[in-house]
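User: I'm preparing a small set of examples for a lab meeting where we compare how different chains pack in three dimensions. I only have the primary sequence for this one, and I'd like the structure in C-alpha cell form so I can line it up with the others. Please keep the answer compact; I'll paste it straight into my notes.
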Amino acid sequence: MKQITILSGKGGTGKTTITAAFAVLAKKAVVTDCDVDAPDLHMLLH
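Assistant: Understood. Below is the C-alpha cell output for the 46-residue chain.
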C-alpha cells in the first residue's frame, strides 16, 4: 500500500483539487479531508 500526503500551511494552493484528482485516478483510495473550517472534498468527488 502506498501513501501520499498532501499538505500546505497556506490556503488556496490546490490541495483539495490535487487530492480529488489522485482519488479519481486511483482504483482504490481512502481519502480524508482534514479541513476543519471548510471541508469540501466531498463536493468534488460527488
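A couple of notes for your slides: The longest helix spans residues 15-25. The chain has one domain: 1-46.

User: Perfect, thanks.
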